[in-house]
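ABC transporter permease subunit structure dump, as promised
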Amino acid sequence: MIPALKRLAANKTALTGAVVSALVAFAVVFGPMISPYDGDSMDVMAMLAPPSLAHPFGTDTMGRDVLTRVLYGARLSLLISISGVGIAAVLGSMIGLFIAYRPGFVSNLLMKASDLLFSFPSFVLALFLMVVLGYGVFNVALAIALIYLPIFVRLARNLAQLIVMEPWVQAAKLFGQPTHSILLRELLPNALSPLLVQATIGVAFGIVIEAGVSFLGLGVQPPAPSLGLVMSDGREYFNTAPWVLTMTGLAISIALLGLNLLGDGLRDLTDPKLKERLS
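structure tokens r here:
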């Protein structure tokens, strides 16, 4: 544990990403509790008020505090992204490990289905899935899961193909361990680090996907808060009150920056060559 923390502290990218991500997580979890405003409370005397000490992100056309709405929206957007990427990571990793360990007709069929999903641009596939599945929080999370599923399948398969011929895996085969035991005990632990890095980066882009489809009116629907809905509201009166859209976009950018830096730093830390240089 201590050597891992030392390597984290020595890697400026990972450390910066971890600090920014921790601050964002703290704000998302505890911010709505600390804020003196409610996400839906309206103040007709403070409609479209510019940023100030009382309202750091200003207010919208209904007099609602934009910062509070961003915090509530970020909580929902982050939950949707983590849920979707989590489903994709678990299911995709197990499918990828199975394809590498048990090649055959079923594995080829699974890989072809994964390649079909992977062939579509992410946001185009998200829009198509939202039209097919319909609106709502659950469907947005499901769409994110289907978008990232082939990514984890391909990554897990490639990693497992490097591990499956190792002596300890072959020994587990000879001792008669069942397939699920070999996948979970022998293959998965040795492929876990790159998968976790991909999941961290995936959560960042999952937030973008959720915000994008909700901004276009195809994702989360009012009155549920989300970052995309807050930005969509600000689009209508951008010329007179640009702070609603710009401040929400800035908050999203900071969250993405932290998660991407954390993912890049973790990728560096899991590089064996870098471990040798830092040890």
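Residues 156 and 227 are 31 Å apart (CA to CA).
lmk if u need the other ones
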